Amino acid sequence: MGDEAWQPAEVWQEPFRRAFGKGQPVVVRGVHARLKLDWSPSEFVRRHGSQRVAVLEVGADEAFDGHTLADFFGGFADPARTPLPPHHVGLARGDGAAAEPAPPPLLKLRDWPAGQGQGFRELLPEHCDDLMQALPLASYTRADGELNLISHLPASVAPPDIGPKCHCAYGRWEPARSTAATTAASDDDEPPTREPGTGTTCVRVNMADSINVLVHVEASGGGLGEEGGSQDAPRHWQGQPVLRSHGAAWHIFTQADTRVLQAMLPRLAQQRAQQQSRAGLREEGGRAHGGRPQQPEAVYSEHVLLDGSLYLDAALLLELQQQAGIAPYSLLQGLGDAVVVPAGCAHQLRNLRSCISVAADFVAPEHVAHCLRLTDELRYLCARTPSNPQPPHGPPTSVPHSDQPCIRATL
């Protein structure tokens, strides 16, 4: 969608609902043209550069501390300034025995800004207001939108955390690691990753609808093989040319396909873990690419979509298509693109360049049933313990009544 997404609701609601009501993603372009403030790393560093942040290496489970926001953003434009996780520090000092220098790690921030009253709205109030006035499809996506059920909660009910939240992560083109697990499913159009099966955000399903706006793409963080770059031929991703404005690549499944994923992924994930474990054992010196010590075989739960522990690489996507006949929408997100993901749609992404995006949740009347089901499933999982493996389902909380006008309008 384009400029019509900011017109009066009667202009955009019908075409939007045709796709969104079926559980399909929607992309609105040009949001950055309506932002009035500076959303660059330098602006965030100017405001809060000395703030301590939790940095997470892409593909790792635990964040590492000891770095500031300025440290993290330093590596956006200059890889030599990338903060190093503990297992990379030894290699930088020459303690490791790697055959070739390890590339700088791909990093992202964990929940910034967040916690202790320092959420996005509190720490960056002007930017929060700037985002809200720029959001398209305002009746749905704004916190006070008439078709956002969150805005109809009574004052006595504590509202859920709907954001906005800032996502800051590195990204770049790199040669793919060649292993038995990936050779058979090689795809020249697929942007290779530092480690097979690793994405910036693993496949997951959200309990609410969401809108994700790409507000900054680091110009100096990519360019390899693009028009005007150092290579003659431009890069392509799944048949789509990758432009300088593109920051992230998305895979988004429909709500119907997500139900198939829930049944198939635990088995496929465990098979992939076994393949990677066998490949890791063959690594020289028992160390994986990049110097990380060999890890034990991963064990995936039966709820992979809720715990966000798996990235579907080209081989797994092909297997899903061959075995179940399902394939995701493949989207390249450029600067200013807003990706609207319906509740219950499994999705994943990886950064092609270092970039910043901002996401906000909302609850649309069309998908309230998915929100309730997923909320109940997550509550059930959180309540499970070794001594109580089958806790009873509790009634859903924080749910507007069905007599609200916005719900009646969609029935």
Write the layout of secondary structure elements.
Blueprint: H1 9-20, E1 26-28, H2 41-48, E2 52-57, E3 63-68, H3 69-77, H4 86-92, E4 107-109, H5 120-123, H6 125-134, H7 138-141, E5 165-169, H8 180-183, E6 201-205, E7 209-217, E8 236-237, E9 240-241, E10 246-252, H9 255-281, H10 304-307, H11 314-324, E11 329-334, E12 338-341, E13 346-351, E14 355-362, H12 368-383, H13 405-408
Antiparallel strand pairs: 1-12, 2-3, 2-4, 5-14, 6-13, 7-12, 7-14, 8-9, 10-11, 10-13
Helix pairs in contact: 2-3
List keywords for this structure.
411 residues, globular, 4-stranded antiparallel sheet, single chain, 29% helix, alpha+beta, 14 strands
Characterization of this structure:
By secondary structure, the chain is an alpha+beta fold. The chain is built from 13 helices and 14 strands. The two termini are 24 Å apart. 37% of the residues are buried.
Average pLDDT reading = 76
Specify the overall morphology.
globular
Instruction: Characterize the largest beta sheet: strand count, sense, and whether it forms a barrel.
Output: 5 strands, antiparallel
Give the helix tally.
13
Side by side, the strands of the main sheet go 1-12-7-14-5
What's the end-to-end separation, in Å? 24 Å
Provide the low-confidence segments as ranges: 175-188, 190-196, 221-232, 384-403, 405-411
Radius of gyration: 22 Å
- How many strands in all? 14
Counting helices, strands and paired strands, the structural category is alpha+beta
Helical coverage, percent range: 25-40%
The helix-strand sequence is HEHEEHHEHHHEHEEEEEHHHEEEEHH
- Strand content bin: 15-25%
